[in-house]
Design goal:
- This protein is of the alpha/beta class and 264 residues long.
- Helix content is 44%, strand content 14%.
- It has a four-stranded parallel beta sheet, with helices on both faces. The protein has a three-stranded mixed beta sheet with strand order 5-6-7.
- A hairpin with a 2-residue loop joins strand 5 and strand 6.
Length: 264
């Protein structure tokens, strides 16, 4: 792993001035922290998109992390629901979203005098269905973690060694990933899922998802928390009702990343 870290720093050092697409998640935080160790902080700008699919709690945390790292952050408004191919929710929705978003970020980077844009995908992302990576490559966006062949586990380990608060942060994904392909995504549906997940998190669950199937909320929790979910089923059911779902169900398979890709 020392070799990978050295390679990552070499990739970063070859760039004089960078913009980092920054969500405040495990990957982009570690990338920002290492970049701040390599380049002068004034040569780094974090850009975070405030969107309907980005939970407000996540936006607040991204601001706190940027402040802790001592890096400039710019919040930009971006409504991916205005991208028809995204709101129609085809299997290619992430491609169209990322294509539009990175075009905007590249424009801002040029205006601010930065010559390179980084994003935080890692080696493990290549094993999943990630059409957004095609938009990354088409736009000439650099993926230093991917280029350095760093896995998610390695990124978490490095984050822990750097005492980053995100080292053990649960995996987070765009709220659009809660919907089966073909079901139109609306702001109201996103708010419904966001509300349900925020309230279920307050019950103490760490890694979970509320998958939306029209009027049904399918709740995925880690297998280790399945018994707890069953014990708190009445509370979870009430939360889903308050969110606007008519029915709720506990998925016995448990939480898994990319569950909606299983039909592809």
């Amino acid at each position: 792993m020392k070799e990978k870290i050295a390679n990552l720093k070499k990739i970063i050092s070859d760039c004089e001035s960078v913009v980092i697409a920054f969500s405040g998640g495990v990957d982009s935080t570690m990338l920002a922290a290492v970049t701040a160790d390599v380049l002068p902080k004034e040569n780094i700008l974090l850009i975070t998109a405030n969107t309907s699919t980005f939970a407000k709690k996540e936006l607040l945390e991204s601001k706190q992390i940027a402040t802790t790292l001592g890096l400039r952050q710019e919040i930009i408004g971006f409504e991916e629901l205005d991208v028809k191919e995204f709101s129609d929710n085809s299997p290619e929705r992430c491609y169209y979203c990322k294509r539009e978003l990175f075009c905007r970020i590249k424009k801002i980077a040029r205006e601010r005098g930065h010559n390179v844009v980084f994003e935080g995908s890692n080696k493990d992302d290549l094993a999943d269905y990630r059409p957004g990576l095609r938009a990354v490559d088409e736009n000439g966006i650099r993926s230093p973690l991917r280029e350095a062949q760093l896995t998610k586990d390695e990124i978490r380990q490095i984050s822990a060694e750097m005492s980053l608060a995100t080292a053990s942060k649960p995996a987070m994904a765009c709220l659009a990933s809660r919907f089966p392909y073909g079901e139109k995504i609306t702001k109201e549906k996103l708010q419904r899922v966001g509300f349900a997940e925020e309230k279920i998190a307050s019950l103490g669950f760490r890694q979970f998802r509320v998958r939306s199937h029209n009027d049904l909320a399918r709740v995925e929790v880690e297998p280790s928390e399945m018994n707890c979910a069953w014990e708190k089923r009445d509370e979870i059911a009430l939360i889903c009702k308050k969110a606007g779902f008519i029915y709720s169900a506990l998925d016995f398979t448990g939480y898994r990343s990319g569950a909606m890709n299983e039909v592809l």
